[in-house]
Here is the input.
Amino acid sequence: MRGSKLLRRLSAVALASLAAVGAAPSLATAAAPASPAPEVAEVTYTAKERKDALAYWTAARMRKVSESVDLGPTGPLTKEWRGAPVKTVGRLFFVNADGADTWCTATAVKSGNRSVVMAAGHCVRRGASPFNTYMDLVFVPGYAKGSRPYGAFPVRATVTPKSWAEESRTDIAALTVDPVGGRRLTDVVGGQPVGFDRAPAGAVTSFGYPATRPQRGEELLHCSGPAEAAPDDEWRMPCDMSGGASGGPWLADFDARSGLGTLVSVNSHGDALEGSTTMSGPALGAAARQVYERAQRA
Here is the structure.
């Protein structure tokens, strides 16, 4: 997988926003200090780009990209999801910087604009490479074996911490999507609440669409287990999901009957290129909160 992290094979990039440069005030008219610039990197997509993304990602193309990647057999810690539909979780399709079709996993969350999706930073931007971009981003909640039961939502903006864009730290992203048929995302599928600044303790359930066989990204899979603190301000849990599961939610207090919990992290990387037995994800602290707040105002 790209870079040093296990799940980077199915990663994404996005344009970094340019920092505004302000003129220094004269000594005679010194103004109050300006508010600090947001520590986020943001990219927006035009109406035409969003329309083109929807036209590009046909049902046939989605199935084809699944067939194009085989990361080996699904591991013993990863199970097929057989509970009630988890409508908020879906596949995030895009074209990467190499021009290749690929995907991540993403989750609809509660937000002020009812249009925010959470994923990993490497699902929208290559880390430490601020000017790369991925195009044609489309979120399909509830995806299953070619079915798009709630429609496909084009992405109009992505936000990551600057620390991800510039230094590959804090692997989290928030995306804002367009309405479909006049209805906003969480009005259609609901949204998971996001839990910031939580301690990494207790059981979590992680979801994803890994490119392992026999599912090859066409079915929702999951792992369950205790989360614990890990180095570099991350959490770790027992899970052997692979590429394609990147960005999938870690849900605490998950209710299998309703498909709801609290999003406390996302799938970022495993502990080895092959045979990984743990999954790590970022702790959702101040940087993640700032990304989320910006996305829900978009």
Summary: The CA atoms of residues 14 and 288 lie 17 Å apart.
